[in-house]
Amino acid sequence: ELLVDPDWFAALAAELGVGVSARTKRGRAHDELTRYRYDVVLRAPGRPVLDVAGVPRLAWTEVPDLTRWLAAERPAAVRLTGVPDPRLSGDLAVAAALAAGRLDPAARHHRDGVEVEDLAAVAAAAGYRAEPTWGGAPGTYDVVLVPPGAPPVVGLPGPTTARPDALIGRPTAARQSAELVARARERLVATLPDHLVPGTLVTCPRCR
């Protein structure tokens, strides 16, 4: 399966000279699509856009009542950061239990956070358009609030210093590895006694 880090699109956008934004999935469902998939929008140069780098940031923990805060402050645009995502809280709870050496099947039902649709509804009632995007910490998302007539928001949390080939999966690598393992096993079977032929061969892209 082709797996692509959002930062790969940032590098692509810089190379092509276009605007890019990564958007987490909307919806109330809690499934693989909403948890781990995202959309990417590329915008041609010369079109009006709002760069997220210039949008004031505000931590979600600093906004105890979003409705009141928007009514009082009326920001031209704001990026709320670190909003806890209930779609991921169960998976993270399972991972934390395993890391601690515990099996906790009920952890996957853990729900903690703010539904993106609830936040978007609050924003709409206050006269803002919500654009959810990648969060800076696991289990969180950011959301940019702008007036309905504002230009599209572009920009990613980056920039990244990772190599482009480290940001994207290579579906053909498994097939290439299988061919290499098959040839290696044939060679070993032809040259070694049965009891010395390894039961499993694993390829490593880089060994130190």
Strand and helix layout:
Layout: H1 6-16, E1 19-24, H2 32-36, E2 38-43, E3 50-51, E4 57-59, H3 66-73, E5 78-84, H4 86-99, H5 116-125, E6 129-134, E7 140-146, E8 153-154, H6 172-191
Parallel strand pairs: 3-8, 4-5
Antiparallel strand pairs: 1-2, 5-7, 6-7
Overview of this protein structure:
- The chain contains 6 helices and 8 strands; from the N terminus they run H-E-H-E-E-E-H-E-H-H-E-E-E-H.
- The chain has helices at residues 6-16, 32-36, 66-73, 86-99, 116-125, 172-191; strands spanning 19-24, 38-43, 50-51, 57-59, 78-84, 129-134, 140-146, 153-154.
- A hairpin with a 5-residue loop joins strand 6 and strand 7.
- The mean pLDDT is 88.
Give the strand content.
Answer: 15-25%
Low-confidence segments: none
Give the CA-CA distance, first to last residue: 27 Å
Secondary-structure element string: HEHEEEHEHHEEEH
Give a count of the beta strands, DSSP E runs of length 2 or more: 8
Mean pLDDT: 88
| Biggest sheet record | 4 strands, mixed
Strand order of the largest sheet: 4-5-7-6
Which of globular, elongated, flat, extended, rod-shaped describes the shape?
A: elongated
Could you tell me the radius of gyration in angstroms? Answer: 23 Å
